[in-house]
């Protein structure tokens, strides 16, 4: 039995792509502003915050790319494959991001206690 094709009009796919592009541009502006505001307010947690913002930006870029791939899926099986790949990569990335943030927190804690013992 073959999977039914997803009959999505080209105009709807184009509209979805434009919407994704507009949302990505808006998020880009947000991340630029957030990054600039962090550099103007240095503090103990600035590096960890900058790292967390970077990870969030990477995740958003991956989500926009994922949405673009889904817009072009031609059948349910392809859509499920795209979704599965995305989730797998996001779980992998989340684990790596948590390891890096945890390492940064531990390092910052060690630095803050130097000379106090």
Automatic annotation (TrEMBL):
Q: Where is the Phasin domain?
A: 31-114
This protein is called Phasin
This chain's source organism reads Bradyrhizobium australiense
